[in-house]
Amino acid sequence: MDIKEKISKLSKLLLHHQYLYYVKNKPEISDREYDCLFDKLLDLEKKYPQLAVLNSPTKRIGSDLDNSFSERKHKIPVLSLDKEYTTEGLKKWIDKIRLNAGGDISFVVEEKIDGASIVLYYKKGLLDIALTRGNGIFGNDVTNNIRTINQVPLIINQPIDVAVRGEIYITKSDFQKYNKNFEGKYSNPRNLAAGSLRNLKSSLVSKIPLNIFAHEGYFQEGKATDFQLDNHVMIISKVMNLGFRINPNLGFFSDKSDWFFPLKEQFPELVTGSIADISDYIKILSKKREKLKYEIDGLVIKVNEIPIRNRLGYTSHHPRWSVAFKFDAPVGHTVLNEIRIQIGRNGRVTPVAILKPVKLGGSIVSRATLHNQEYIDMLELGIGDIVSISKRGDVIPAVEEVVEKSTENPSIFKLTKFCPFCQFKLIKDGSHHFCPNRKCSERMKRSLIYFAARDQMDIEGLGEKTIRFLFEKGFIKSISDLFTFDYGSLLGQEGFKEKKIENIRKNIELSKRKPFSRVLSALGFEGLGSNTVSKLIESGYDSIDKIMDTAARNQTEKFSSIEGFGEVMARLMIQHFSDPKNIEMIETLKKIGLNFREHFKSEPEFPMVFSGQIWVITGSFRHFSPRSQAAGEIEKRGGRVSDSISGKTTHLLCGDSPGGKLEKTKNLNIRIVREDEFMEMLI
Question: What CATH number labels 71-326?
Answer without folding.
Answer: 3.30.470.30
